[in-house]
Amino acid sequence: HKAQVTLSSLSPFQLLLIAIVGNQFGNIAVDDISFRPGPCPVVPQTAAKDNGDCSFEENMCNWSNPAPQDELDDVDWARQYYYDQAGPPHDHSRGDAKGYYMNLLTNTPLLLKGGTRGWLVSSRFQPTANPKCVSFYYWMYEKLIDPAGLSLGSLRVFVRLIKPGKPLSPLWRLYNHQGQRWFPARAPIVTTTERAPPQTPYEIIFEGVWGEGRVGNIAIDDITFFDGDCTTEPLGAAAVLGECFFGRDMCGWTPLSEFDDYSSTIAPTTEPKTANTVEESLWKMARVDYKPAGLLDHTFRSPVGYVFFDVFLKTAMQRPKLRSPLLEVSFSGVRCLGFWFVAFGRSDTTALEVVLLDMSDPESIKKTIIWRLEARNFANSSRTDWSYAQVSVEAKGDYLLHFEGESSDGGFALDDVTFFDGSCHTRPPAAVGKG
What we know:
This protein has strands spanning 77-80, 101-104, 117-121, 132-142, 153-161, 168-175, 179-188, 202-210, 216-227, 254-256, 284-285, 307-311, 321-323, 334-345, 351-358, 366-374, 387-394, 399-406, 410-421. The protein has 435 residues and is mainly β. It holds the Pfam family MAM.
């Protein structure tokens, strides 16, 4: 029988193989001891001490789909092997068609559409003082790529704290087609705000989201947890605080009115506000029954999954704000903020600004408008087409970002807020900063 276990230590160590004698009518033997780089799930699964490791060859190892009544997702993950051309043609553990893995299903009682998501939830972990990492293998393959672009979907990993509100912290994320094979992945288990190991019991969540294409596979295999620090693999999958595609919540972005001053609500929020908790003219999550007419989200072309503000025939100018979590300065001191937007409405006064708030001295907050676009200066053929925008964000210390709207009759929608290291040219060219 094959056995394996991950070894991790911050100092030199020795291994002991200890056998316990039973009734003396059998044999205990070992052979072919070897070492190889990288983590691996405990084999056989029965030897794992409920630590979350799983190759899925025997069962799901206490990983589970949320109950339907919890209304946390739309579709299940299934433990399966390759059959009837469903799922990847082989698993990672065994490398053949009879090996098991977890596959994001496409069959659901509801209409499968862009934005349909499935959660796979671990058992509960207890907090530890030492850093911890999760590793796994993923398969993200799109069989038919639309000429309009990649549209498979996304795979994300979260840590969810077991406390009121159960806030989520993103650990890892990738989007769309990656290739027709198993790729290694890993991420440090840290909370969003402290960037440190969780201090309360927690769960790990794998979230798969189908895009508009839905012709392909999103699957995972060989989940492993190990002690020690690690870098994110691949590097481009590292989750960045403030990134959001607004599929379920605002990811820590907070809607404020124009009367909220710049020193209020500085601490990151753990329970994002939604359309039910903000006033009519503020930024809000799109709902099926309340959103701009005909506007689909940019990420997956689903009916909802973006934020917007829309002002209706107000006599006074409205200036709603959308505030980021408190963001740390990058190593280089500059990041590129990217996002997609739609301008709509009937007023030439409608505009959108990106405002940088330097929080290095909370007693003297410096405000800089780094990007501003007036709807009347933006020649877009259709007010339901998403347009890309980007701007460099330079900071010397911690900072906040605001999306600040301005309108008496109209609004803007936002989606897919991302950050990239380094500077970038301002887009669209019509957008300018005021300094």
